[in-house]
Specification:
77 residues; 4 helices; extended
Length: 77
């Protein structure tokens, strides 16, 4: 079965089952800090320092979600 076929079948499941499956798949992914590029690590350090220094503008959950949905809608066009 291809990934596309599997996705088609998964999307037929009720929402709760899809969510549980997604959580299990997500947890199965191993995260290795050594996989991060040096540039990515430096960007993370820069962002952490920005937050610590108060030089960071945060968004509320609602603002973040609205922005994410807007950007996703633009990608789908």
């Amino acid at each position: 079965m291809s990934a596309s076929d599997l996705l088609t079948e998964v999307l037929k499941l009720p929402r709760q089952q899809r969510q549980a499956l997604a959580e299990q798949v997500w947890q199965s992914l191993e995260w290795d800090p050594d996989d991060l590029s040096p540039a990515f690590v430096e960007e993370l350090k820069r962002r952490v320092e920005s937050v610590k220094s108060g030089n960071y503008e945060s968004l509320s959950l609602e603002e973040s979600m609205a922005l994410a949905w807007k950007e996703l809608a633009e990608v789908k066009r």
